[in-house]
Amino acid sequence: MRAYKSKVVSPIRLPDREERVAALERAGYNVFELDSADVYVDLLTDSGTGTMSESQWAAMMRGDEAYAGSESFDRLQDAVSEVMGFERIVPAHQGRGAENVLYGALVSEGDYVPNNTHFDTTRAHVANNGAEPVDCPLDGALGDESGGDADERRFPGDLDVAKVRALADEVGSERIPAVVVTLTNNSLAGQPVGVENVREAAAVADDLDATFVVDACRFAENAYLVRERDPEYADCSVAEIAREQLSHADAVVMSGKKDGLVNVGGFVGIRDDPALDDLYERARERGILFEGFTTYGGMAGRDVEAMAVGLREAVEERYVADRVGQVQRLGDLLADRDVPVVRPTGGHAVYVRADEFLPDIPREQFPGQALACELYREGGVRAVELGSFAFPDADRPELVRLALPRRTYGADHLDHVAETFDAVAERRDAGEISGLEIVDEPGMPELRHFSAHLRPVETEEAEAA
Ligand code: F0G
Predict the structure, then answer these.
(1) Closest ligand 1 atom, CA of 403?
(2) Which residues of 5-22 are buried (b: 16+ CB within 10 A; e: fewer)?
(3) Cα separation of 199 and 244, whole Å?
(4) Whose CA is nearest to atom 10 of ligand 1?
(5) How far away, in angstroms, is 461 Cα from ligand 1 center?
(6) What is the DSSP-derived secondary structure letter of residue 213?
(7) Residue-level pLDDT at 461
(8) Could you say which of 84, 118, 385, 447 would form a disulfide bridge with 122 (CB–CB 3.0 to 4.6 Å)?
(9) 260 CB within 6 A, ligand 1
(10) Which residue CA neighbors atom 19 of ligand 1 most closely?
(11) Checking DSSP bridges between strand 453-456 and strand 436-440, what pairing results, if any?
């Protein structure tokens, strides 16, 4: 059952097929280069794309725009303390700003940082400080290559703590300043992390004398999935589970653009523990240097107000049930059509195994990117490739992510997405979908999926014609 009705609307339209074909060509077969006005259902990301509530809009009028000592900051601090349990915060303009503040204060040249799986900006900030990001997911976390429900694990997003211990044995615990757990595991099909795993990760960090950091972007969705999958928490509220799970962390990095339910904003949270005083002071200094004074950190006072309200709404039962339920419904709609999706679905997105959906396109011709382009061509749907195009060097499943903005689309939009898959499947069965090749690749290789241009690979039949 939907928990919201609309009060403000944004017009959208589905351009006709000819326009979509032309737009795709203009974009160089890179969906990041499409104009959003040409997109009908935009599932590129759940980050900063959601709809704010009337309470958030009302709170914005209270925004205290003072450079220092803003009352809005006090209200954010209260919200973070009550909802997440962190008494000290350093605000930032968004998640990666918070990452820059925290990882710059924590890690140095030659260090190693284990994480259940680094999100791309996290990886970049760890590397930017001269340290080596090390992914420590569970082996075979997403099940066997044939997909389906092969994975019996309740929490495929977990950190493999044995891998963290092995890394410490190999490089020495003094080279591991931080152990990180990302809730949910965005780079691994958005799968949740169990509470028990966070406890174990905290214990390992303690043994290694490392700071235990949680990337809490999607902490509320993770807590909801904990209740669904772990009988120990069946009778707890999402708010209680979130508090319990975060209580084990020394620090959190937060992008408010996800479970802060805002369009921009973020912060670092640091536990009020004398052992963390130095870290807090360094983070505050870096906050002032890179983000802004410690009571606004790159946000307007009104943005700070909106996030203070959003954090409380994120753990409301009716909100989070509506939210995760919608993602699960999209997963079901696609699975019912035999679209190979990672199951059970995570909290913010449905991930499609593109190499199984388009088995005739070889990995070198980017089946995931080909699928993302087809979804746009056939239905004006924008998704994002997270496979061989986005991660050229990594041995990763060939995934396409359909991320749902929060409180934004309705059931008819989801139906449209599902029907678009039918249209793509029809073209596939008629042999009409070709792979892609890169034409130019400006800038850093790690960021190529944002800016590279591609073109369809000419098939022999097309060349002969
Ligand atoms: N950590 C995780 C797990 C994320 O998913 C993101 C952003 C960030 C940090 C950085 O936060 O965007 O506010 O700077 N993820 C978005 C996505 C971009 O599409 O998954 P940010």
Answers:
(1) 19
(2) eeeeeeeeeebeeeebee
(3) 10
(4) 95
(5) 42
(6) E
(7) 55
(8) 118
(9) no
(10) 45
(11) antiparallel
- The predicted structure's pLDDT at residue 443: 75
Name the residue among 333, 315, 334, 340 with its Cα closest to residue 216: 315
CATH fold group of domain 54-314: Aspartate Aminotransferase; domain 2 (3.40.640)
Q: So what's the pLDDT on residue 462?
A: 53
Residue 276 CA to residue 281 CA, distance in Å, equals: 9
Q: Give the percent of the chain with pLDDT over 70.
A: 96
**Whether residue 257 has its Cβ less than 6 Å from ligand 1:** yes
- What is the 68 CA–ligand 1 centroid distance (Å)? 28
The answer to whether the CB of 119 is under 6 A from ligand 1 is: yes
Q: Could you tell me which residues are beta bridge partners of residue 386?
A: 399
- Chain centre to alpha carbon of residue 103: 18
Structure tokens at 171: 């490089």
Instruction: Say what the pLDDT of residue 448 is.
Output: 86
Residues 49/59, Cβ–Cβ less than 8 Å = no
If you measure from the C-alpha of residue 47 to the centroid of ligand 1, how many angstroms do you get, rounded to a whole number? 7
The pLDDT of residue 232 is above 70: yes
What integer is the mean pLDDT of 117-124?
A: 93
Instruction: Indicate whether 327 pLDDT > 80.
Output: yes
Beta strands per DSSP E along 44-121:
88-92, 112-115
Q: Could you report the per-residue pLDDT of 168-198, keeping only the tens digit for each?
A: 999 999 999 999 999 999 999 999 999 999 9
Task: Give the domain ranges of the chain.
Answer: 17-50+317-454, 54-314
Specify the pLDDT at position 230.
95
341 Cα to the center of ligand 1, angstroms: 22
pTM above 0.85, yes or no: yes
| Distance in Å from the first CA to the final CA of the chain | 53
| Assigned token pair, 370 | 């080909």
Does the CB atom of residue 30 touch ligand 1 within 6 A? no
Q: Where are the beta strands (DSSP E) in 109-241?
A: 112-115, 132-135, 178-182, 211-215
**Cis peptide preceding 15, ω within 30 of 0:** no
CB of 263 closer than 6 angstroms to any ligand 1 atom: no
For residue 231, the CA-to-ligand 1 centroid distance in Å is 30
Encoding tokens for residue 392? 């050229």
Q: Is the CB of 137 under 6 A from ligand 1?
A: no
The two domains 17-50+317-454 and 54-314 share their CATH topology (first three levels equal): no
| Residue 94 Cβ < 6 Å to ligand 1 | yes
Task: Specify the CATH superfamily of domain 17-50+317-454.
Answer: Aspartate Aminotransferase, domain 1 (3.90.1150.10)
DSSP, collapsed to helix, strand or coil, labels residue 255 as strand
